[in-house]
């Protein structure tokens, strides 16, 4: 107490032991806090982090207002503008923010549409601006399913191509019906960054023999999810038919996943009438089957699960677009 505010001081520490031996420390300095002055300049207190192209930069970027001594100015309503200082691209989002009661402006929705190394600058018409640290805008991680094959009654091996500029978690999302956000997910597998990596992983199905719709989701360190653009239907090995309910007349359905307008083979033990119904009971196709193999052309209809009834034997048929 009693020291002048905003002033630089020098000091040393002198000490003595019980025998009276004295010693003096080296010289140290400190500056007392001064009275906060008027706003003079900005400083990045929350630097921009590496982000993906066209994705919001996280965590939010924050700017603090300072006075001439570098002390925070707790003043609201000061306008702060954000621009690209170096690097190419268009900065999107709310580019002008007002400071809060603590003199902090928060930019939480900024994104850039081109990849590469960048710097931002925070400024306005009257205060001294500040340039951010350099960061990089990266291509969005992408994954595509290349192939899949059943290797047991409950395991399918999935091969996929990973194009990711950063390390990610790989998650298989699967469902026996249609994929929804609530569909089952496998445990995540950590994968190092790799552009053009060809990978294989195994997915266990429960119950055994249950075919599944499948896609792959990449999750980055910020928790952002990037699903594959393709969805496939996969089956464990040695399971030709899904959900067999009866096997008295209808011997086989090949394939059991078809595209509308395609064909399906029904094999029956004896001549019998048949029908194909949707899950809500709508009749899609009906007629008669001859003993042996019959080729049917599947009409164009809504993708989903349908049931084939032939002489009391029922099998599931999945129609895709």
Features:
single chain, 3 domains, 0% helix, Immunoglobulin-like, 6-stranded mixed sheet, 321 residues
Output the structural class. mainly beta
Q: What average pLDDT do the residues reach?
A: 83
- Work out the count of structural domains: 3
Computed Rg: 33 Å
State the share of residues found in helices, binned by percent. under 10%
Largest sheet: 6 strands, mixed
Proportion of beta-strand residues: over 45%
- Quickly count the helices: 0
CATH topology of the largest domain: Immunoglobulin-like
Q: What's the architecture of the largest domain, going by CATH? A: Sandwich
The oligomeric state of the chains shown is single chain
Shape: elongated
Description:
The protein has 321 residues and is mainly β. It has three domains: 41-138, Immunoglobulin-like, CATH 2.60.40; 142-234, Immunoglobulin-like, CATH 2.60.40; 250-320, Sandwich (Immunoglobulin-like), CATH 2.60.40.10. It is 0% helix and 52% strand. The chain contains no helices and 32 strands. The strands form nine sheets. Strands 6, 8, 10, 13, 14 and 15 form a six-stranded mixed sheet that branches. A hairpin with a 4-residue loop joins strand 28 (272-278) and strand 29. Mean pLDDT is 83; it is low at 238-247.
Topology overview:
Blueprint: E1 8-11, E2 14-16, E3 22-24, E4 28-31, E5 41-46, E6 51-52, E7 61-66, E8 79-86, E9 91-92, E10 96-98, E11 104-107, E12 111-112, E13 116-123, E14 130-131, E15 135-138, E16 142-150, E17 155-164, E18 168-175, E19 184-185, E20 189-191, E21 194-204, E22 212-219, E23 225-227, E24 232-234, E25 250-254, E26 257-259, E27 263-268, E28 272-278, E29 283-289, E30 292-297, E31 304-310, E32 313-320
Parallel strand pairs: 6-15, 26-32
Antiparallel strand pairs: 1-4, 2-3, 5-7, 7-11, 8-10, 8-13, 9-12, 13-14, 13-15, 16-17, 17-21, 18-19, 18-20, 18-22, 22-23, 22-24, 25-27, 27-30, 28-29, 28-31, 31-32
């Amino acid at each position: 107490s009693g020291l002048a505010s905003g002033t630089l001081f020098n000091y040393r520490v002198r000490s003595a032991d019980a025998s009276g031996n004295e010693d003096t420390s080296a010289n140290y300095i400190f500056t007392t806090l001064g009275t906060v002055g008027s706003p003079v300049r900005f400083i990045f207190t929350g630097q921009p982090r590496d982000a993906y192209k066209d994705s919001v930069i996280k965590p939010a970027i924050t700017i603090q207002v300072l006075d001439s001594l570098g002390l925070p100015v707790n003043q609201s309503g000061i306008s702060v503008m954000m621009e690209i200082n170096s690097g190419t691209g268009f900065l999107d989002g709310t580019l002008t923010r007002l400071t809060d009661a603590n003199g902090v402006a928060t930019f939480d929705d900024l994104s850039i549409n081109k990849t590469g190394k960048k710097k931002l600058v925070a400024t306005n018409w009257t205060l001294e601006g500040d340039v951010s640290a350099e960061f990089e805008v990266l291509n969005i991680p992408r994954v595509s399913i290349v192939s899949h094959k059943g290797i047991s009654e409950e395991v399918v091996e999935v091969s996929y191509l990973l194009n990711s500029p950063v390390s990610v978690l790989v998650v298989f999302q699967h469902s026996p019906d249609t994929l929804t956000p609530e569909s089952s997910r496998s445990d995540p597998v950590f994968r190092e960054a790799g552009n053009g990596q060809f990978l294989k992983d195994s997915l266990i199905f429960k119950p055994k023999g249950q075919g599944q719709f499948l896609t792959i989701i990449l999750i980055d360190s910020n928790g952002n999810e990037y699903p594959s653009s393709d969805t496939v239907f996969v089956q464990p090995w040695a399971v030709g038919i899904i959900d067999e309910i009866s096997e008295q007349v209808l011997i086989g359905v090949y394939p059991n996943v078809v595209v509308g307008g395609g064909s399906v083979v029904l094999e029956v033990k004896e001549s019998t009438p048949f029908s194909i119904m949707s899950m809500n009971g709508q009749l899609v196709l009906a007629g008669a089957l001859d003993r042996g193999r019959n080729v049917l052309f599947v009409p164009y209809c809504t993708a989903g699960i349908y049931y084939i009834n032939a002489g009391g034997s029922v099998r599931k048929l999945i129609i895709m677009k």
